[in-house]
Design goal:
- It contains five helices and four strands, in the order αααβαββαβ.
- With 187 residues, the chain is mainly alpha-helical.
- A two-stranded antiparallel ribbon has the order 1-4. A two-stranded antiparallel sheet has the order 2-3.
């Protein structure tokens, strides 16, 4: 009887030790493999707009961590985040996008043609930044200060009454988040 107890106790002890070892090894491997991907994903805005060409921020973070994507593809994040992403990945690869020049370039925002809108609310539910307001069965409007131009609302609209328009900068629609303006010598 004592031999059976010792056998079961010894077997249980061996299984517990093996379980702990496997758990520690799995955590070490997970931390090494995903640390860059997790840091990248934490820097991204998380709105999954798809402007980078990937289906969401997680897919873009994975592609960045594997070196398959340029660090400056996320338009909503802007140039500061693009620089941080390049530092994390050590990437010198960049797309043909200069966000500093885009400071003064009119950006695209959604515009709803209210006379065609049936007020179904599909666009409002799809908007990742909650820039669309309105009541069901009535027309909806887009807040241009909140809209990121991701075109998710356009895809969702059954009436095809939404389009992206250029938002000309004025005092109320200007990107005041300017960190520095470089003045180049004309010579």
């Amino acid at each position: 009887m004592m031999n059976e107890i010792y056998f079961i106790g010894g077997l249980a002890l061996i299984l517990v030790v093996l379980g702990i070892i496997l758990s520690v090894l799995a955590n070490l491997a997970d931390n090494k493999a995903d640390s860059a991907e997790k840091r990248i994903e934490n820097l991204l805005p998380g709105i999954n707009c798809g402007q980078c060409g990937y289906p969401g921020c997680q897919a873009y973070a994975k592609a960045l961590s594997e070196g398959k994507a340029a660090a400056n593809l996320c338009r909503p994040a802007g140039s500061d985040v693009a620089k941080q992403l390049a530092e994390i990945t050590g990437s010198t690869k960049s797309a043909d996008v200069d966000y500093e020049e885009q400071l003064f370039t009119p950006r695209l925002v959604a515009y709803i043609h209210e006379n065609m809108c049936t007020g179904c609310g599909k666009c409002k539910r799809k908007c990742p930044v909650d820039a669309i307001s309105g009541v069901l069965k009535q027309g909806h409007v887009v807040n241009p200060n909140e809209c990121i131009g991701c075109d998710e609302c356009i895809k969702a609209c059954p009436e095809k009454c939404i389009e992206l328009i250029r938002l000309e900068h004025n005092l109320s629609h200007f990107n005041w988040n300017i960190h520095s303006v470089q003045i180049k010598n004309g010579n």
